[in-house]
């Protein structure tokens, strides 16, 4: 069985995707950027905002940050990644996932970080 979770984000309908998909005991959370009007200007606040959206999707899926096994961080400027490290270490705590950071362009230049995770859904 496959279950789709929508967060109602602006790009979900425009592009044709959902925030997360739960299948085979796992939840796959799509790349997530900050929300808000206006979107926070600095990378740490954007990271915090994206993690909040991801956290809600994980909770709806029956999972949590302690179940995340894989995370990918995408930033247009790799120099902005280090300021996020304390927040990420706090978020994942003693359960750090495998991680990758990619420097790349994002969908809109106002975004400073995009985060994608895969987590287990405990039975």
Automatic annotation (TrEMBL):
CDD domains: YjgF_YER057c_UK114_like_6 (cd06154). Pfam families: Ribonuc_L-PSP. This is RidA family protein.
């Amino acid at each position: 069985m496959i279950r789709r979770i929508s967060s109602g984000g602006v790009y979900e309908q425009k592009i044709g995707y959902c925030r997360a998909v739960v299948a085979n005991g796992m939840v796959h959370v799509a790349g997530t950027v900050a929300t808000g009007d206006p979107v926070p200007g600095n990378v740490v606040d954007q990271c915090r905002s994206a993690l909040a959206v991801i956290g809600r999707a994980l909770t709806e899926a029956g999972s949590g940050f302690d179940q995340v096994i894989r995370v990918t961080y995408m930033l247009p400027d790799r120099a902005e990644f280090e300021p996020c490290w304390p927040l990420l270490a706090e978020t994942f705590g003693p359960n750090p996932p495998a991680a990758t950071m990619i420097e790349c362009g994002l969908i809109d230049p106002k975004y400073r970080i995009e985060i994608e995770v895969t987590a287990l859904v405990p039975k």
